[in-house]
Every structure is written in structure tokens, then in C-alpha cells.
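Researcher: Please generate the 3D structure of the following complex. Treat every line as part of one assembly.
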Amino acid sequence: MAEGYVVVSMLYRLSRYGNTNTQMINNPITIDEQLDDIASAVNHIKNNFSTCLGVNASKMQIMGESAGAHLVLQYAYTRERM
Amino acid sequence: MCMPITINAQKAIDTVALQIAFNQWANQWLPTADVPDTYIPMQLAILFDLEKECLLTVECDLQMKTTIIPKGAPLPHLAMEYTFLMPLDQIVYLNQQQTGMETVLHASGWYGSHTRQRYYVYYPANKNPHSPVVLLVHGGAWSLGPNPLKLEMVLLFN
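Model: Done. Output below.
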């Protein structure tokens, strides 16, 4: 970050998560929706960060950890690039 | 999913009533069961002017956006209309404690309308138009969310 990198930490909709079993069963979110969220975030960054934040939003790396790593890989291999 | 409500400005006699109506609408964006207790609501500065219809102003240090809402019209979908970055002072304070780096600035924003469709931005004071962006996606078995204030992954970049 000292070298000028801008770090964005995104949240995404969680799958089968809730405080009660009923919420877990009724939660309709799947990995597809989570990939949609990553795509939405990428589009949002590309559309807004150049003007709102003054950074080079066309140069972007996406990293993930654990389930996030899987989501990023699946996004990179299956979703059409902007 | 949060739905916009309709505020009838003619029925709202004073700005207090209008403010209350807006707060009821804005409370839909506040923490719910699926976000941690430490979730910090967005900071808004809202002005209402009945003579000029409803005037909704959202201010932050990066951008100010003003929308004039006709009387009786539904308020705009906040997360979609105001997707610019919103500063969160509490996060700045927490991160300064954790890293001792006062140069790292923070902001938060929404890329969608769900309470989880949110992001946090961390950038140094020397950012410039050539600064690249790193997008972090947290883990947690697809079903667990980290406390966004813990920021372990972000700290890797310090």
C-alpha cells in the first residue's frame, strides 16, 4: 500500500447463512449469485473509481482467500471479461 | 432486500416529520441479522427544504451529490443512486490502532442494494491516477462473513 496500491475489500452475499435453521434453509443465495456479486463489484470499480477516487481502475487484480479464492478462480474462468 | 418508500411532502408538515419518515426509510439500511453488530451505518447529511420540494443531499469528502425529489415521489434507491464512496471515521481509527499508519485512508461504498453488497477501500495518501486496484474477496466456506473491521487480508498490504 505504501507503493500506491489501492486495496478494496468486498463483501458478498452469503450462502445458506442465517441465525436460525429456517433462515438457512430459506436462503436462496448460491455460488452463482456470489459470482454475480464479484462481477457487480468489478463493474462498479471500473465505472466509478477513476472519477470518484482518481485511480487507475483499468488495472485491477482480484485476489481471494479460501472460499474467496475459489470464487475468484471461477469468476476468472467462467465470466466474460469487461 | 430494501424497498424504497414513498414520502408525501404535503402531508409532512414540517421538516421533523419528513426527517422521521426518511429515517424510517433509511433504517432499512442499518444492521440486520446477517451482519455483525459492529457494522457501521453509512453517514449521511440530509437536508430537506419543503419550499423546493424535497432536497436530499448526501455529502462526503470525495463527492457531494444532490437530488431533487418531487413531492410524493418515492425516494431513490440509496445504494444504487449513491454508489460513490462514503468515509467511515470509525474504520480509520481502528486501522490506525492496528497498523500505526496514518497515511492509509478509508472509504466505504455499495455496489448493490443488498446489505452485504458493500466494499471497503484502503488507499495511501500518495495514490495517483496510475494507482492500480487490488480487489480482495474474503473466504469463509461461502457462508461465513468476516468482521469487515478485522481486515486481516488488508493488513497484508501494509
